[in-house]
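for the recovery benchmark. tokens below, seq after
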């Protein structure tokens, strides 16, 4: 947890207004989290814009860089660009609460806000579900489509449901 302290944004000494913070993250950052990554060799710049108000904080977190992915079809490595942005409102309250989607409540006596989890989620949301190398040809995709299972329109009807449907149709 000590290494995650590098991603604390201290706001207690800052004046009201906009402030910028910059971070460079690589594989060491992602090793701080106990999850398997779908990518390797991350080289990502993080720009954090903090707009400090008297009663709340607004964070805008932008990630921009590249990661190495493995193509789902050819199994070859390729570089994928990462670019994403999220906005979070941080307000003060009794205890930490992140149950709302875009609002996080932190204790009133906190003097810094750790953005490591937000950076991690921002990058994770940038990874596509389908990882296709730019080198995959149209012919490869056609062959894949040819041998992919097809959905059938015919459904076998269950006589028990048919009886219930008949009751519905009579009314």
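predicted aa per position
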């Amino acid at each position: 947890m000590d290494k995650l302290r590098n991603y604390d944004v201290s706001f207690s000494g800052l004046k009201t207004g906009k402030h910028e913070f910059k971070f460079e993250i690589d594989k060491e950052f992602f090793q701080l989290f106990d999850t398997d990554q779908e990518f390797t060799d991350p080289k990502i710049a993080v720009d954090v814009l903090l707009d400090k108000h008297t009663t709340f904080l607004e964070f805008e977190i932008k990630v921009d860089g590249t990661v190495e992915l493995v193509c789902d079809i050819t199994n070859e490595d390729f570089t994928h660009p990462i670019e994403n942005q999220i906005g979070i409102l941080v307000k003060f309250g009794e205890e930490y609460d992140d149950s709302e989607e875009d609002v996080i409540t932190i204790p009133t006596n906190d003097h810094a806000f750790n953005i490591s989890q937000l950076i991690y989620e921002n990058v994770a949301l940038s990874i596509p579900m389908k990882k296709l190398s730019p080198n995959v040809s149209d012919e490869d995709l056609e062959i894949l489509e040819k041998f992919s299972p097809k959905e059938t329109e015919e459904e076998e009807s269950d006589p028990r449901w048919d009886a219930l449907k008949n009751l519905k149709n009579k009314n």
